[in-house]
Amino acid sequence: MELLKNRILKDAVVITDQFLQVDSFLNHQIDPALIEEIASEFTARFLDTSFNRILTVESSGIAPSVLTGLKLGIPVIFAKKNDPSVKINDAYTEMVHLWTKKCDYQISVPSKFIKKGERILIIDDFLANGSVSHALISIAEQGGARVGGIGIVIEKGFQEGGKILRDMGYRVESLVIVDNIKDKTIIFREQH
Amino acid sequence: MELLKNRILKDAVVITDQFLQVDSFLNHQIDPALIEEIASEFTARFLDTSFNRILTVESSGIAPSVLTGLKLGIPVIFAKKNDPSVKINDAYTEMVHLWTKKCDYQISVPSKFIKKGERILIIDDFLANGSVSHALISIAEQGGARVGGIGIVIEKGFQEGGKILRDMGYRVESLVIVDNIKDKTIIFREQH
């Protein structure tokens, strides 16, 4: 997605070779017009599949999910992050390991929102090691739903999450894939 | 807003006389089509004022804010919730007291996103005692911005937050005001 690549080149801040800060347009301050373009791109890429619901996680996944849900005409569920020690009633839960902060947290979705047999579209802002995607897949599957696609705004191609998910047979559509960040230069993967 | 009243009557769950659960369409599962109507209503109500940015708080404020920001053509900033013991650098912070859980948390916005002299529209899903609104006002004012309006999806009219904010001179536009919940019946305030 050229528009997104150009925005990343213009406004993203390279903090380290591993960490790209996009808080001025994606995940702290949000540019709604860009998010609408992102939603249009997800809608176009998944046009051949019919989904019942979008599943994401708070907070940065919400904006692209809601605009995609509006275009697809389906509800959006967002998993909430909880303290792992808290027991959540009537909910599907899963653990997520946050590599950047070296800590674990729990995500949860009330079981009433996951319907058996439904097809779920997972959307998130970033894909790195894939632990959030795996947790969302687990939550969908705990409720008897199946994941028909995973839409990612920015995939870190130098981490293994995307490869593992694709090798498992999941269809992952990443709007941009950053293959490398070296000497503050961002190298995108060519996609067709 | 009749559409929203009808949706509340249809799908909200009265948990207690103080607590209305709207997690099936507003703050856990989201109905994007309803959120778009909410955004249209906010846009219409604040048509006479020009805003530079929307300020909200994660997570439930994000969806209505992004769709309103799209219609108004302005960016959305969401404050993040942090552990009060964590020092956040280069950010404006404020404490929020959560009455329902009897605990305090901190919300923060990077100072680079609040610009001196700008006019801010605050949006949130609920207004009860008003502690989130006061914290967002404080953050805007710490950065030299001023709050030109507060848009609320559901105001609990039996709590004092809305009255205090209006008495202070803030323009609060609540799409529905619940004046009372008694014996599982929801009483809305008439608005013109």
Can you describe what's shown?
Chain A is α/β, with parallel strands linked by helices and 192 residues long. Chain A is globular. In chain A, strand 10 and strand 11 form a beta hairpin. Chain A has an 8-stranded mixed beta sheet with strand order 6-7-5-4-8-9-10-11, with helices on both faces. A two-stranded antiparallel ribbon of chain A has the order 1-2. At the A-B interface, strand 3, helix 2, helix 3 and strand 5 of A face strand 3, helix 2, helix 3 and strand 5 of B. Strand 3 of chain A pairs antiparallel with strand 5 of chain B, so a sheet runs across the interface.
> By helix and strand content of chain A, what is the structural category?
alpha/beta
User: Largest interface by residue count?
Assistant: A-B, 31 and 31 residues
Largest sheet of chain A: 8 strands, mixed
Give the overall average pLDDT of chain A: 96
State the total count of DSSP E strands of chain A.
11
Elements of chain A, N to C (H/E): HEEEHEHEEEEHEHEE
**DSSP summary: helix tally of chain A:** 5
Distance between termini of chain A? 10 Å
- Helix fraction of chain A, binned, reads 25-40%
Q: What's the multimeric state?
A: homodimer
Please give the radius of gyration of chain A in angstroms.
Answer: 16 Å
The unreliable regions of chain A are none
Which strand order spans the largest sheet of chain A, edge to edge or round the barrel?
Answer: 6-7-5-4-8-9-10-11
Strand content of chain A: 35-45%
Shape of chain A: globular
